[in-house]
Automatic annotation (TrEMBL):
<dbReference type="Pfam" id="PF16491">
    <property type="entry name" value="Peptidase_M48_N"/>
</dbReference>
<dbReference type="GO" id="GO:0004222">
    <property type="term" value="F:metalloendopeptidase activity"/>
</dbReference>
<keyword id="KW-0472">Membrane</keyword>
<feature type="binding site">
    <location>
        <position position="354"/>
    </location>
    <ligand>
        <name>Zn(2+)</name>
    </ligand>
</feature>
<feature type="domain" description="CAAX prenyl protease 1 N-terminal">
    <location>
        <begin position="29"/>
        <end position="203"/>
    </location>
</feature>
<keyword id="KW-0862">Zinc</keyword>
<keyword id="KW-0378">Hydrolase</keyword>
<feature type="active site" description="Proton donor">
    <location>
        <position position="358"/>
    </location>
</feature>
<dbReference type="GO" id="GO:0046872">
    <property type="term" value="F:metal ion binding"/>
</dbReference>
<feature type="transmembrane region" description="Helical">
    <location>
        <begin position="148"/>
        <end position="168"/>
    </location>
</feature>
<dbReference type="Pfam" id="PF01435">
    <property type="entry name" value="Peptidase_M48"/>
</dbReference>
<keyword id="KW-0812">Transmembrane</keyword>
<dbReference type="InterPro" id="IPR027057">
    <property type="entry name" value="CAXX_Prtase_1"/>
</dbReference>
<feature type="binding site">
    <location>
        <position position="280"/>
    </location>
    <ligand>
        <name>Zn(2+)</name>
    </ligand>
</feature>
<feature type="transmembrane region" description="Helical">
    <location>
        <begin position="98"/>
        <end position="127"/>
    </location>
</feature>
<feature type="transmembrane region" description="Helical">
    <location>
        <begin position="286"/>
        <end position="304"/>
    </location>
</feature>
<feature type="transmembrane region" description="Helical">
    <location>
        <begin position="62"/>
        <end position="86"/>
    </location>
</feature>
Amino acid sequence: MNPQTLFYIIIAIIIIDFIVDKILDTLNAKHFDDPVPQELNDVYDKEEYEKSQRYKKERFRFGIFTSTFSVLLTLGFIIFDGFAWVNDIARNFTDNAILVALIFFGIIMIGSDILTTPFSWYSTFVIEEKYGFNKTTKKTFFLDKIKGWLMMAVLGGGILALIVWFYQFAGNDFWWYAWILVAVFSVFLNMFYAKLIVPLFNKQSPLEEGSLRTKIETYAKSVGFTLDNIFIIDGSKRSTKANAYFSGFGKEKRITLFDTLVKDLEEEEIVAVLAHEVGHYKKNHIIVNLAASILTTGFTLWLLSLFVGSPVLSQALGVEEPSFHIGLIAFGILYSPISEITGLLMNYLSRKFEYQADNYAKKTYGAAPLISSLKKLTKNSLSNLTPHKAYVFMHFSHPTLLQRFRNLKRS
Ligand SMILES: [Zn+2]
């Protein structure tokens, strides 16, 4: 294939991907004003529902604006040989392939982050602020950015450097080495995420003494889960929105509850959410997800190894001298339709797992407190009660509130 054809394929993929995404967004938005399902009409009162309608419409418009900006930026960058330009800058510093790749991706990442910062600023300090969600201070906003960059430089940079090095000595067999590296790293990160990464951004503390702790203790004992593994995190530092999640495995397993969740829900509802998280653990969802992601990575790296050496990838992006990092960019775009499909499968699996965790909570604790907690969490985040089927199928990692309600009510 000649570089010109590949160039057009790359442009076409970006445009088609954008259009499909916008069609789904618009389809979803067309159903914002659908009648609320009977089972859910106690979630909002009239005034709150109108507020949620304004919120989702504003989010929708903002999403169209930001994604249009970013797709135009990407297309412009490709059409005007932006990657070749950044490649030249990196090559002016050094001839070392590893350093060139690091400088190249450093410029791309930081450049695109700076260009999109006004959007995340607007999202946090204008939209979220207007609806009463925002708790982030300007200081936290910038500290988060800087910490994020440093983390990216250390972890992302380290992995990239090793992969380029593997490519230098192993050629197309690099994918084996890279796969082992990424697999080991994923397992490690999954285990120690809560201990190593979370403390950079948040404070975590064990459950305090009191009636909530007693209730959780009783439940945890009944299903054989250790209380040492339950933590409260200061999510209120950034937003009033509430959450809970399970992470790690083996001795490092833990359930993290947001302080906002503890504040918003009744004690029985908190235990029900916890029971749902214990369900994820008992059903081995973390391990299955991790295994699925490691397999997907192996497949991606293998596919990358088939193409990355081909000069046509670099030439399609206007770079004459083929190199690993330019090949990686071109491959990344060409791979995106496949990653849409794997993402879709992962979402499908995740929704299955949510039902299983809900069923576990229902069986070991009760359906009623979980239903009322889900309704409260939906209300407090002004979530959409009437998402479109196709949108749910593509984007949702959780079933809709209505689906979860019906599943929990089923006897
Ligand atoms: Zn869940």
